Structures are given as C-alpha cells and as structure tokens.
Amino acid sequence: MQKTIDFELARNIRRLGHLDIPGGGQVVVDGGYAYVGHMKPPHGTSIIDVSDPTDPKIVARIELADSYSHTHKVRVVGNLMYTNVEQNNRHHLRRGDKLPELRSRLQNALGRSPTDAEVAAELGAKTAQIAELDAARERGYHDGGFRIYDISDKTRPRLLSHTRTFGFGVHRFDVDENYAYISTEMEGFIGNILVTYDVSDPTAPVEVSRWWMPGQHLAGGETPTWAGYRNRLHHAMRVGDELWAACWHAGFRVLDASDISQPEVIGSFDYHPPFPEPTHTVMPLPGLIDGRRIAVGVDEEHDHNPGSLHAFMWVFDVTDLQDIKAISAFDVSEMESPWSRAPGRFGAHQFREKMDSTLIYLTWFSGGLRVVDVADPMRPKEVAHFMPEPVGNEPSPQSNDCDVDEKGLIYLLDRNIGLDILEMSL
User: Fold this and answer.
1) CA angle 389, 393, 394 (to 5 degrees)
2) Low-confidence ranges of the chain (pLDDT < 70)
3) Best label site of 1, 120, 288, 289, fewest CB within 10 Å?
4) Is the model's pTM score more than 0.90?
C-alpha cells in the first residue's frame, strides 16, 4: 500500500493578509506601501497600502497602453519609483527574426514558396503562430528601457522619464540615490549587458558606463564562445563599492565599482557546466562569519528535464575574490511540496535582495517561501516555510519574489496571481 504524505504547508509562519492581484515579477516594500510589478499587460505596476497588513488596499494602478511590453520589475528610492520596460513574450517573438532566412532556404529546397505549416514545422512552432511572429517582426519593438515616476503622492504616480535602450529592453536592475544599474540589450551586443545611468536628474538619466563579458560586443569584433544568449547579464546588485553580477549560464562576476565610469572584474566563479540552471542572483552577507566573507547565490528553475538537478541555493566563501569557493548548498526535495510535479515550476527562483542578517528569504516556485539561516555557512538550515495553496484555476502556487518590511512582515508574490502578507514566529 502507498503511504500518504502529510505535507506541512506552513512552519513558523502564518498568513496575516492576502490580495488577489494579477501575478507579478517583483515586490518591494517601503514606508507602509508595497509596490508590485506585474507579469503581463495590460497590468503594469500597483501601489498597495499595507499599513494594515490584514487588509491591504490598492491605491494606484499603472496600466499599459498595449500588449507589446511588460513592466514586471520595480524599485523605489525615496519618492522615486523605477520600472523596467521589456518586450512581452520576448523569447517567443524573437523567433520571428529567423523566418525570412528560413523561408528562403525552404523555397530553394522545395522549388516553391513554403506554406505556413511547413515553416512552422521547421521552426518548431505552431502553424497559427507564424502570422503572429511575422507581425511582431514587421512591427519591431522600440519601447524597451526604464521609466522613473514621482510617487510623492502614492495615489497619483507621475511619469518623469522613459529612457529607451535597445532590443528586448530592460530585464532586472538595481538603483540607489545616484545611479541605476540596468541590465539591457544594447545595439552591437549579444545578450544583456550592464549599463549604468546617472539619475541625479530623474527627468533625464545620463549613461555613464557599460560592462560586458568578452564575446558579447559583436560590433567591436568580439566572438562569443557560447551559443545564442546563454551567457549574458541577468542583473547586478550594488554592495558598497562592488557590483555583484549574475551572468546566467556564465556563473557570476564581482565588479569594482569605486570608479563607476570604469567597472572592472575583481572576482569570477562559473559552475556551468555541469549544473543546468542559470545563475539568477548573487550577493554577499553583511559582515564576516568566523573571519570569512560569505556570499549567497541562487539559480532559476526552468523547464525541468527528469534526471537533471532542480535549481537551488549556493553558499560561497568569497574572502579572497581571486579564489572563490562553493562551500555548501540548500535544496528542497520534491517530497516536500504537494505541487512539485503539478504544471508549473518547482525549484529555486529568487531571494530577497536586501542582506541584513544571516536569514535568506527564498522563493521556490511551487515550493513556496523558504527561510534559510546561513549563520553556519557550511550547514544552511531552513527555519521556516510557507506554501500558499493555488488560487483560482492555477494548478500550483508559483512563488516568484518576496520582500520584508521594517516590522519583519514578509510579502510573498505569486507569478500568476496573489500577494500574501506573512508573519514569522521564531
């Protein structure tokens, strides 16, 4: 007889409030408000009053004018709110760039114009998608970049600027009082690179520097040693005079940012191959642990091939940036989530991008939120978790991002639908 598994959906965490909002890519909390960047148009950005965590209220919505972009990332500095602008369904739509060459090749082979069905079979797409891909290629995409809003009145965000970049536009980014550290495509490069902007005048950001991995600058005569977009900047986080750059299937780099006009690599670590999932985020902990400097990294789960490792969390000794060492890891077993094999992703995605203790707040898609203590960096220990049940018709929760406010409340954002406000009891 098969044994029934009793799943513990919550441990040392309880839910205080919930809001059914369209799914999001990022949540940040500042001064009694939560800011959510939504995954799909027409939903852009929501500003939510969370002064009463049991009864969160939306006070402002920014809707998108069309379905060509999404603005799924958001950050706040004082009375300024930053959002990305990126092509919606970018990876799918870019397949349309291959169609002219593909049609020409098929016409030469067949001696006639190929049908949409023949083109689709060659491309590995559905016949009905060919017209969509053609239309997107002919239309082009010109809005990618980032926007800055004045949010001194939270109920009426006021657009100050829309800085356009290139290609897909901007994915993730970091900001502070002086600079925006933007991950974007730029003309002449393959894959996202780091472009830093001076935002002292938020109505007119000014580019101050670029950084890329050797091989990305095609227009400069460089040749990548990898296929397609596998090696690219995911995003870089500013920590003191350093930038910690996650570089997808190229591991991560640590950049000296003391002269922001010329960021330089001072540390590098790459574990691809053999590990299949790309590096999403990496950041150091504050202070030292037993005289050692420790950093945490997380990979992002994608389509899972049975037998391959799921994405998980890494712990690194970065005391010597010229000799970075992986010293431990944290993982969640499929046996710990009732939705680990339901449609959707199961595996790591992201951690809270503010390091102020040894607690790491991790989102694990259908594994929910995991709170992991790395006080002993050789033995990461889960101290709490919360797995929300699926909302609406979704087959599984897809916990995507989280933040923690000044009172210690946790804000857990689902990729498909819903925001939970949680309280931890340790």
Assistant:
1) 55
2) 1-5
3) 1
4) yes
